[in-house]
Amino acid sequence: QWKQLENLYFREKKFAVEVHDPRRISVSRRTFGQSGLVVQTWYANTSLIKSIWVMAISQHQFYLDRKQSKAKIPSARSLDDIAMDLTEMGTPKISKLVTLEAKNQLIMASNGSLISSGSQDSEVSEEQKKEKIMELKKKEKLLQEKLLQKVEELKKICLREAELTGKVPKEYPLGAGEEPPQVRRRVGTAFKLDDNLLPSEEDPTLQDLESNFVIHQKLVEAAKKLASEPDLCKNVKKKRKQEYADAVKKLQEIENSINEYRIKCGKKPTQKSTLALPGERIP
Length: 283
What we know:
With 283 residues, the protein is mainly alpha-helical.
């Protein structure tokens, strides 16, 4: 029924009728908080859709004028009077939707609606529409920037996971035609120190030297793992081998300092570095 009509509008090849039906549950995004708003949609070429829209709003205008005439003239009229009124209303009037329930609601559409294209309300609606579009564009830009930021964070997390597992996870975001990055798995070089490295009251100096030796022994083991990692380029492999040799040399120097101190204190020297690194030649 016409009294249930909320809006008539068209956009390019789409013609839609919005009807207020309390018995129906709304599924439209154009409800603006109203319930029971049902949207019926048809599609055709632009000229046909616009013609249908013009005929629809003209017929709705006829319904409104007829309703107002009935309210003003309650008595029955003759056919001649009705024909005269129809002649005076020969030019279709396009106005905004006004029902007897006094719903003075302004409903906007992109290409056409119940609002007259030449009225003052139409100009206001166009300005409101432009402001709304600008506001939506700003929100869209902010959302895009936030999305890019989150994508970069996700990439970093996926790369960290790939360095631990040696495989890029499927959640890594890829652009159109982009190949997943090549990531080498990190070599495990973490080590745990002994719990008895604190200086003892017996000989704090010797205990410090022993603790320093244990720490550098772990560093030598870590340097060895890095130097023996496969699939290294020539320069990196050479550099890591040199770092490993320097670490072994430093370890031997610490052991020599320990033995010198032990001999000074009247104790027997040890050979810890040779025992700690079997099969390795100490420079």
